[in-house]
Amino acid sequence: MGQMIIHVDMDAFYASVEMRDNPLLRGKPLIIGSLPQERGVVATCSYEARRFGVHSAMNIKEAYRLCPGGIYMHPNFDKYRQVSGQLHAIWNEYAAAAETIALDEAYLDVTERAGSWEGACEIARTIKCRTLEEVGLTCSIGVAYSKTAAKTASEEKKPDGYFEIPTPQAFVDLILDRDVRVLYTVGEKTAEKLHSVGIRTVRDLQARSDEVVRMMGRQGEWIVRVAFGEDERPVTAYRPEDAKSISRELTFQEDVEDVEFLKDVLLLLSMSVERRAARVGLYGEGVTLKITYGDMKNVTRSRLIPTTRSAARIWSESVQMLAQLQGRPVRLIGTGIYRLSGENGRQICLEDLLPETMQQETEMLRAGLEDLQRRYGLDFAGNLDKIFHGETLYRTVEYMRRHRPGRS
């Protein structure tokens, strides 16, 4: 007996949570993301908004042009994370292994628990019912023999859908005459490359498989295998240490040239990165700085450091890298750590050997926060942890930008 995999995907997750909690929003074109007068993009939107052509990752100005009568809201990530915890707790009850893809999405290996194809389908229906009854949200579910087929199945009847793909042949029969983009390993750029040589459908891809392999190498080999329904990848439980980096970034509503202000923002971002890293027990061996200028040019700088997750060290390294960049209007700034390791796998770092170094960094951070509070008239007393929640951090930085010393 082969694998039996369920793919669960919530329907317009952020928007659905808001509509669940506020019935007045139901049936309306709801867009979660930036507000129309702000910079930013659509995080997600209700199916009513999608009828106007709005979709995730769309520039918010374009979304407003298409749907001026929509309801626009900032996301509430703290609430979505809480709901996500409820969802995954239900789903994980049925899986020998659960691979979390996002707050609202997961692969579940139910092979052992189900015992048969009928058993797997019964589990999928139970998950669907419990998700609605216990959390008040609909999901779309695919049951299949592989991860690729399960993902395809969950998309087949959205929203509130259910679909089964029991065999490789059933998968191929379903997608054969669809565009190559139906294969979830084929992104926009790969599809354009295939289209440019006349390979538009999965049938075309199968017929010209040797050419695809010659043109795209190992990537082409994988795409061809998937096109023939082959995918033996197991469901692998996510581990925090599998992440490549931990980072935090912010987009300003107006471009900023004030370097001192950018340093202050990096302080808050560095503290946020430290908190995220501590929450999952990870350390980094490198620090990154990301800048997007007003002309949309992106610049990333990085440097290796002794193992750390210290906000003071992240801040110090980021500020040094910032000083080496051109003084131009900045649209976005971010920082983070990479080359991650857990407590057991990390190398001994400077703080382990020299406790006074940790004390110096603590003092450096305290002094930096005191300067920041004084410059902007902020009061973090008792509220510092709340500052690092997504929306609160964004609002705090925007307040700082508008009230920074010397701003005309």
The number of distinct helices, counting runs of at least 4 residues, comes to 17
Within the CATH hierarchy, at the fold level, what is the topology of the domain at 240-403? Dna Ligase, domain 1
Average pLDDT value?
90
Low-confidence regions: none
Distance between the termini: 71 Å
The CATH architecture term of the domain at 240-403 is 2-Layer Sandwich
Beta-strand content bin: 15-25%
In the sheet with the most strands, the strands line up as: 5-6-1-7-8
Shape: globular
User: What would CATH call the class of the domain at 240-403?
Assistant: Alpha Beta
By CATH's scheme, which homologous superfamily of the domain at 240-403 applies? DNA polymerase, Y-family, little finger domain
> Helix/strand-derived class?
alpha+beta
Give, in order, the helices and strands: EHEEHHEHEEHHEHEHHHHEHEEHEHHHH
**Main beta-sheet annotation:** 5 strands, mixed
Helix content: 40-55%
| Total beta-strand segments | 12
| Rg estimate, integer Å | 24 Å
